[in-house]
Amino acid sequence: MGQSRHHYEQALEAHLRARRIPYISVNEARRTLLPADADLSIADPASESGRRVALKSFDFVIYGEPTNLLVDVKGRKVKAGSPGRLESWVTEDDVEALTRWEQLFGEGFRAAFVFIYWCEDQPADALFQEIFEHRGRWYAVRSVLLEPYKKEMVPRSKRWQTVNVPSAAYERISSPLSASPCEEFAGSLTDELAGTRFAPTLAAR
């Protein structure tokens, strides 16, 4: 397995291993699952000459049957005593790059943002359905497929070129990443992935 860059990715890797959910790092995925001549660039929207820039990377491929997830991990911190609103912002580049990765990998792969919330206090069950502890820190997980995210996203900061999903919509389209081995994808995350089974199953709602 590839070495993670940040504690959020490290925590997710540990969580996946603990649940025995198969995955590989993005570097392994690019080497083993894409053709050698795959175009790993996108057009630079700021360039008038059609200049292309390197495609922003994602983090993991999580294997399932019949659908695999291309996962871009987004780490967010939840301070002690903070209200229940969960940050769901990403950059416009994140959305564009993940869209391109989904196109490159093709049939059998779906792109998703996985938000890992580092909670200063042990999170309440009422706020999160999937929580775990790693190296003395508490984490909670929500995941959302790329296409529903794109349909619901709104501008957040023009200056920083970020977008997010309003709270009510985020609650509706996001889900826990994993659950018990006997559960199947269901609900808002998986209307299109119904019947997908992971080993053990990734589940939503």
Task: Describe the fold and architecture.
By secondary structure, this protein is an alpha+beta fold. 23% of the residues lie in helices and 29% in strands. The longest helix has 14 residues, at 92-105. The two termini are 28 Å apart.
Number of beta strands: 13
Helix content: 10-25%
DSSP summary: helix tally: 5
Shape: globular
Strand order of the largest sheet: 1-4-6-8-10-9
Mean pLDDT: 79
Structural class: alpha+beta
Spatial separation of the terminal alpha carbons: 28 Å
Question: How would you summarize this macromolecular structure in one to three sentences?
Answer:
By secondary structure, this protein is an alpha+beta fold. It has helices spanning 7-18, 26-33, 92-105, 146-152, 167-173, and strands at residues 23-25, 41-43, 52-54, 60-62, 64-65, 68-78, 90-91, 109-119, 131-134, 137-145, 154-157, 162-164, 197-198.
